[in-house]
Design brief:
about 0% strand
Length: about 90
């Protein structure tokens, strides 16, 4: 559905809560059409993000390990890796 949401299952180390939340936030943005919550949409938006992040964490915990890691790295991990490389 959304090409911007990366696969979290099979990451080494495992997906962080921040990566799960970022994926949930991207999903909610896509399906709701709300890019920046406003006072009238904020509560529903944040509740949806929390619900989807929790469901995603349950799903990832319940699935068997992947045989191969995902082809792409989540954006938060790429950002952290680039910052680490720049600081080296």
């Amino acid at each position: 559905m959304c090409r911007n949401i990366t696969t979290l299952r099979g990451l080494e180390p495992s997906a962080t809560p921040q990566e799960v939340e970022a994926a949930a936030r991207q999903y909610v943005r896509k399906v709701s059409g709300v890019q920046q919550p406003t006072p009238s949409t904020d509560e529903a938006f944040e509740r949806a993000v929390a619900t989807i992040a929790a469901a995603t964490a349950v799903l990832l915990d319940a699935l068997p390990p992947r045989r191969q890691p995902p082809k792409t790295v989540p954006p938060l991990r790429r950002l952290a890796e680039s910052r680490h490389a720049a600081g080296s």
